[in-house]
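Subject: Large ribosomal subunit protein uL23

B.,
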Amino acid sequence: MSVNQYHLAGVLQAPLISEKSTFVAENRNTVVFKVLKAATKKQVKGAVEIMFSVEVESVQVLNVKGKEKKFGRSVGRRSDWKKAYVKLKPGFDIQFSGA
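Prediction pasted inline below.
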């Protein structure tokens, strides 16, 4: 594994499994990931192609702002994070269900 591939392996943090991401996956052949805050579209595309052996058609990223939450008497703030919608080319699929 080259240094570039090693760096790309750390770009994806986790798949996001929610009602919206399941709907997008079924209807638009798109997978949703939580990615590093500094990740670019090219890095996300390369990471998905390397880790899952699929071809990516397009990538859309968005920054999610952290919410303010109360913890007892004090007010805290959750961290900001980045989400990536990865559209796969026809004929490719990623299955996260296992075991």
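The domain at 3-88 is CATH 3.30.70.330 (Alpha-Beta Plaits).

T.
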